[in-house]
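Entry for the shared binder. Reason: the reviewer on the internal report wants the predicted structure included alongside the sequence.
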Amino acid sequence: MLKTLYAQLKEFKRPAFLTPVWMIGEVVCEMIIPVLMGLIVDNGIYAGDIGYIVRTGILMLIVALIALMFGFLGAFYGAKAAAGLARNLRKAMFDNVQTFSFANIDHFSTSSLVTRMTTDVTNIQNAFQMMLRMAMRAPASIVIAMVMSFMISPQLASVYLLAVIFLGVFLFFIMRSASRYFKQVFEKYDALNESVQENVSAIRVVKAYVREDQEINKFQKAAANIYLMFVKAELRITGLMPAMSFVVYTCILLISWIGAHLIIAGSLTTGNLMSLLTYCMNILMSLMMLAMIFVMITMSEASASRIAEVINENTSLHNPENPIMTVPDGSISFDHVSFSYRTGTGESVLKDISLDIHSGESIGIIGGTGSAKSSLVNLISRLYDVSEGSLKVGGNDVRAYDLETLRNEVSVVLQKNVLFSGSILDNLRWGKKDATEAECREACRIACADEFIEKMPDGYNTHIEQGGSNVSGGQKQRLCIARAIMKNPKILIFDDSTSAVDTATDAKIRKGLAEEIPNTTKLIIAQRISSVQDCDRILVMDNGEISGFGTHEELLASNAIYREVYESQNGAAGDADFDSKD
């Protein structure tokens, strides 16, 4: 874990190294000042030597200014190193998430990843900055003050030593008790972020079903759990301040009482006593700093572990040593393919699938909910790897291709259509970075998106809100289809991506695809048989297995499931869902 975090310092190792150096310089200067104060009292005030007081005072001012400079440099470099580490941690996590397969993504919830990149990183940043500055300053201050105290009076310095030992033991037990609660707090943040994210993304559904009160209660429960954990942890720490105050005042009383006797006996000067009292406060304040450092380290330990977990997560999909960099054509071949989301432990979602699809063919895929239609097409672009058997695209096993090359030739329009904030042209150019406006218009014409885009005030420069919240479901689907067409792929997959489009527009889209990109293999998952009946062949899926594969006429004659659904939908004027057979 520490090795993972240290590796992310990168270009900020120098400021991270210099910060403790400046802090030690500041401590040394601060430890000189009490000695000079004592000399002023003993050699200046008592002797009535104004010149000595002025000279020593000027020296004190110079030392104080040097300490101020060291303190400023320590704060500057510490902030730079901590902020740089936080930046690199976020970048490392985000970059690694981009390499994840769907199997990797399944390990982390969205809310958990958000918490790790925000709250957890902030905790590490604050803890690291405090460690760079205080973790070096506080021990150095204690050691130097203790040495200086023993040089002045070993008898009085023994009082400090006993206080340090007492507070050290007390601090250890307090932190040990509080640490387990801090570790649980950040797991509760995941639940809180999940509640917020879910509510905001689905705010229209919340309001449509008048579920505001329930959502408020859900959020309050998550917030209350965090509150309770923090209260339990803070209750353990509250005992630290009374113990610290008790020790401070006890030390001052003992030093004053013992010191007075030593002054009367002539073995200690008044200036020395003042220096010792100053060192006493320095030592005890440094102990308080150490206590805060332990609290921050305890709080950040869980965050560090969660961050390292994301950075060290290895993608389950890898490029071969000598990957194939060209996809010859859009042919697809499943050879006894089985697939499970949990390899070796879960039940197979796809069972012994064997089928051949020719390049340029139009294949319809239908099946009830849970029949593994989406799982089947997800294997083609290698979002998951097959558990058994082999899957070939363009005559080569998909595992032999360079991942980027394969995915550039397989364009997918998912069930959950996602648009990003920016103009319509910006979204379309996700399919082709350097696409001209004319190319974008042509893709939108094929997808029947030009009809509504041209009616918008700013046309293709119309701004799309985050998630496409300012366009309808059908408009969003057509924009996503146009974006997929922009890639000019060898395989085009529609995962129930025309469900929000009316049947007339659906037919126009299918006609445009057949006429404009005839050489592209098209896989169309749909619930309406009218959306797939004109395909070259239709695949019927049932419980992860192939129930039938053939033309519309062949399936009507030979497949009971297909015939039953067709008759059901045909009787309902073509609007029935595939699952209506249930």
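Summary line for the report: The radius of gyration is 35 Å.
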